[in-house]
Amino acid sequence: MSDPQQIEHIDADVVVIGAGVAGLSAAPRLVEAGHDVVVLEARERVGGRLWTEVIGGTLLELGGQWVSPDQTALLETVETLGLETFERYRAGESVYVDGAGERIRFTGEQLPVADDTVAEMERLTALLDELVADIGAEEPWAHPRARELDTVSFAAWLAQQSSDEVACRHIAMFIGEAMLTKPAHAFSALQAVLMAASAGSFSNLVDSEFILDRRVVGGLQRVPLTLAERLGERVRTGTPVRRLEHTPDGVVVTSDRVVVRARRAIVAMPPTLIPRIDFQPPLPRRQHQLHQHLSFGLVIKVHAVYDRPFWREDGLSGTAFSPYLLVHEAYDNTNHEDERGTLVGFVSDEHADGVFAMDAEQRRERILADLAAYFGPEAANPVVYYESDWGTEEWTRGAYGASYDLGGLSRYGADQRTPVGPIHWACSDFAGLGFQHVDGGIRSGWAAAADVVAALDASRASVS
Questions:
Q1: b/e per residue, 250-281, with b = 16+ CB within 10 A?
Q2: Which of 97, 99, 165, 278 has the most beta carbons within 10 angstroms of its beta carbon?
Q3: Is residue 219 helix, strand or coil?
Q4: Are residues 206 and 225 both part of a single domain?
Q5: Is 198 among the domain residues?
């Protein structure tokens, strides 16, 4: 804690807690509306779950990084900020490793499995697309079938739809391991529908050509970095918020370095971290329960850098999948105009538990063995190897985002953005479209800012 005599006291119209994309997207809208804003961030950097670092001479995106065509809020922001994007490398064949350990090269999005399994996967995909079209992303909890779908795990729901275990395992992988980073028995079918609906359809979500389309030159963290630069001294880093006192007339927010008195607050942080703030008076029972039914998944994002993208010489795209390996997916993650080649792979949920039980060298060897199974023995010897483990990051504690336990989405979803007096909420974990993605964080920031502006305007009108 800082010396109380050195703590700065600030008056503002709005205080934003969290300098991820949600908070940094809300703040400019508030400034444009003529309001004084202060943004407080616990970390010594901005960006939240977006983080770019140069490690071993290569730029690595340690958090979120991809931009897809449906992410219109993100695309608008990238254009407004004057940032450039580039296409993910995808020329050549992809690799699939089957249950027997056979390495199969293929083209297109359909995995090389038995014809009857392909047909069953296509049928399950069509069924999920129908549910997405019917339920949507914005209020899945309001659908007549919400409780039915929310009280059965996605794994159990798939088993009810199909007796093809291989088809079910692959469909489960796309949402469980690849997106929610939880095993399919740990989240509901309704949560799976929301995850698919956030991208417009399940077909979009499983299409790596679509969902992993582009990257930002210099890294996706340039979005929050540029937003923060434009906000200037309004953004204060290294200021963990410890206490938030609130009355109908406003808030007093106490951090380690700054105390802010404001008319409104936007809490723009992962819902799993909200209970770390001492709210006075305490939040209503509904919010306390809501936050307890949300949890992060777990994933290791593995970066392997080589002196060149050697897999391209073999006609490979760098894209690989297998529900049977620890590294369930991998991609060519070479930077824009970089001579070095980079592969990125992912180890999630219970598989991550297993490798974290190993020491660092054992874990490295085990993970690189899977990359070698995909791309050949040269993949086992990178010049740079780095693991992004967001589960140990103090101000995140998991990845990629928070999702509800069974029954939680239908029970609490309608209240997750409901203001508590002068306190509003924003984060990608509460988004509909763009749920758990940067696009959803931006949308939630814009929505919270609009709510605050409307509330302040109404207050001003009542006074006059």
A1: bbbbbbebbbbebbbbbbbbbbbbbeebebee
A2: 97
A3: coil
A4: no
A5: yes
Question: Is 261 within a domain?
Answer: yes
* pTM score: 0.96
Beta bridge partners of 87: 214
Is the Cβ–Cβ distance between 37 and 14 less than 8 Å? yes
- Find the CATH number of the domain harbouring 234: 3.50.50.60
Answer whether 151's CB lies under 8 Å from 406's CB: yes
121-176 tens-digit pLDDT: 999 999 999 999 999 999 999 999 999 999 999 999 999 999 999 999 999 999 99
What is the count of structural domains for the chain? 3
106 in a structural domain:
no
Residue where one domain finishes, among candidates 179, 210, 241: 210
Query: Please, where are the H alpha helices in 321-431?
Result: 349-356, 360-375, 408-412
What tokens appear for 229 in the block? 């630069």
Record the tokens describing residue 365, joined without a space.
């060897």
Helix (H, G, I), strand (E, B) or coil at 14: strand
Q: Give the E-state strand segments of 80-160 in sequence order.
A: 85-87, 93-97, 103-106
Residue 24, domain extent? 4-48+221-283+420-463
